[in-house]
Structure formats: structure tokens, C-alpha cells
Amino acid sequence: MAEIVLVHGAGLGSWIWAGVLPHLAQAGHRASAIDLPGRGGAPTTLAAQAASVLASAGPRAVLVGHSAGGFAITAAAEAAPDRVAGLIYLCAFIPRAGASIADLRREGRAAGLKAAYRVAPDRQSFAFDPEAAEALFYHDCPDPAGAAARMVAEPVAPQETTLPSVAAAMALPRAAIFCQDDRAIPPALQMQMAAGIAATARLPCGHAPFLVMPERLAGVISTLAGPMA
């Protein structure tokens, strides 16, 4: 079975995977979830986030990145491809060379995301408005208000950082999971960014499948990670 490292997206944390981890363990995987540097809006870089992912992984791990976490796992694969068995993108921003998360958001007309966050006066961090987050991320979750209340500020820098190359990541086994009722990253944009990735799966939910259907999500991750191990 696989070693799996689960990486959260912007404003979130390792807590989002609490319902997924037991099912991955039951399937025989060694799974862990991490908190990326920068939670709470502390200054950090995409390179530091990638280093954090690698520091949490064993010799050969499958990296799962949700939303903005797609950039962190790709940066980790670029930094040390020999340490990565495969990449799984969960309704994620999937990098291409020379384009940042902010670039991909603008190109894909993910207007809902821009309208939902507020940038701090010093332009160094941003945070999601709780009411907007409820509708955008958690509309189909058991406790939308509770989930939105747990979100924290994030540093701007990783969102505006580009990767000069993604060749090493593209050479690894990759998979993408699309969320078909996603209001944050439109499904069409998810599929556009995943062009060239053959292994895909779809879930009938919004942007937070780990809260809506954790057991089903774990099953999909297990299926996709198996051949990568």
C-alpha cells in the first residue's frame, strides 16, 4: 500500500482530513495530514511550503493536494522528484510553467473566489469572508457555518508565485479528482488544468468533499494511489 501525505488548500488546515484518514488507514495506507507554513497569514513562500511537504513525507510518498495545495505538492515534486511516488490533485489548481494561482484564477474566470476574500491593508495576507465562504466552499456540508469559522488568513506570496518548470512533476504518475458541484473552482476549469492527466475521477459534491463524503473520497484516493505506490 501507499504512503500518502494530504495537503490542504488556502485558509484551511490538516483538520479537514480528519474524516478521511481513518478510511485510508483501514484500506492499509500510511496516511498523514500536515499544516502548511503560513496559516494565519504569517509570511512564507511556496518553496517553504514545498519543503514542509517533503519534510513530512517518507522516501516515496503519494502527495494529495486540495485546491491551492496543488501548487505546494507540485513544487515539492519539482524540488525532489525522487521522493514523490505520484501526485493527486483534488479540485485543485494544477500548475503550468510560468503561471501562478492568481493567474490561473483570472484566466479561468473563477470570480467567486476573488469576491469571497479580503486582502489585508499591507497586501501581505488575505482572508475569506465567513458568509461568502459558507456559500462558496461549504454549501453542501453538514455544518457550513462551523467550517467557515475555522478558516484562517493566508499569505499572498505563495498565491502569486510561479513555477519556472513543471517538467519533473509531469513525468510522475498523476491523477485528478474533479468535484462536479464546485462553486470555487468551476469544474470546467478543473478539467482544463488537468489536460493531459489520464487518471481521473469525479465526485458529486462541492469544494469540500472531505467534509461531505469522507469515506467515498478516501476510496477514490486509495484507488488512484494504489498504482503509484
Distance between the termini: 6 Å
Number of DSSP E strands:
9
Topology as H/E string?
A: EHEHEHEHHEEHHEHEHEHH
Number of helical regions? 11
> Might you state the CATH topology name?
Rossmann fold
Average of the residue pLDDT scores? 96
Gyration radius (Cα, Å) is 16 Å
Largest sheet: 6 strands, parallel
DSSP helix fraction: 25-40%
Give the DSSP E fraction (strand runs of 2 or more residues): 15-25%
User: Which CATH class?
Assistant: Alpha Beta
The CATH architecture can be named as 3-Layer(aba) Sandwich
Principal-axes geometry comes out as: globular
CATH superfamily: Alpha/Beta hydrolase fold, catalytic domain
Low-confidence stretches: none
The structural class is: alpha/beta
**Sequence of strands across the biggest β-sheet:** 2-1-3-4-8-9
> How many domains would you count in the coordinates?
1
